[in-house]
Amino acid sequence: MKAIVCPDFGPVSNLDYRDRPDPSPGPRDVVIRAEAIGVNYPDGLLIQGLYQMKPQTPFVPGMEAAGVIEAVGDEVSHLKVGDRAVALVDLGGYAEKVLAPAAKVFALPDGLDYDEACAFMCAWGTSHHALKQRAQLKPGETLLVLGGAGSTGLAAIAIGKAMGAHVIAVASTDEKRDACLEAGAELALGYEGLREALKEKAPDGVDVAFDPVGGAAFDVASRAMARNGRLLVVGFASGEIPKFPVNLALLKEYSLIGVFWGAFTAREPEVYAANNRELFEWHAQGLVRPRIDERRPLSEAGEALARILDRGAIGKTILIP
């Protein structure tokens, strides 16, 4: 089979497209013949050696793939050969055939295509967990979404709307702000003059802030929180990890909450599976639909990642084997 291989930590341009041995399932594994492969911002960090996890090189990156199950292990009973499914993996997703633990493989309902299924795994899974378990977002609350046009940002907008929140999105260009409005935001703002705009548009503060950006945007959000608010630390796409003035939490009486989705999926697999079922149900009801930004051949994984790292993508990027 063909796969994308990271020979050593470094720029995404160093990725190789090469032959690899076909995987074989262990007793509790399945092998999926991929029809769609999701690309995520953390993939780029991992390849550069900038992520929390540093696997031994060489390795095949990629956390999500959807397609048709080709083989199942002897102890797997809830899936069978020929099922349409999507998988969450630690590594190995950028390949024509993907080995995955059966516990993290989900059969796809009718009407959910492979591209959308990939989007639901990491990006939407992160946003859903952030808003549901970590923030416990309530109907009628005001949700601020930074990085609104990224895959996690658009997901947070749509999920926040589905949960009954009033959503204010922040994005850097007119095109990105239009995408935020299409996803369900009631208001889309730019980063320039954001502090003053939030004072005007949300004078009582925001109840929940979703921040995958960090840097100066975090500083603005930290000053825009309402009493009993929840500021979610999701990531640092700006490249700058901010320093938090803890006196703000004291004076404004709000909470700073970390969101580590990978740890959540490992430590609470049953809750994670229930989250996926809810996303699938919302999709079937027409409440949510991922935006697919572009589809590229698997061989162009490096180019796709470079665009995401440069914050050029609007929505989800998919690789096609």
UniProtKB/TrEMBL annotation:
Classification via SMART domains: PKS_ER (SM00829)
InterPro entries for the chain: ADH-like_C (IPR013149), ADH-like_N (IPR013154), ER (IPR020843), GroES-like_sf (IPR011032), NAD(P)-bd_dom_sf (IPR036291), Zn-ADH-like_protein (IPR051397)
GO molecular function, one term: oxidoreductase activity
Coiled coil spans: none
Start and end residues of each Enoyl reductase (ER) domain: 10-319
Domain of life where this protein originates: Bacteria
PANTHER family named in the record: QUINONE OXIDOREDUCTASE-LIKE PROTEIN 2, SHORT-CHAIN DEHYDROGENASE/REDUCTASE
Protein name stated in the entry: NADPH:quinone oxidoreductase
Annotated organism of origin: Hoeflea olei
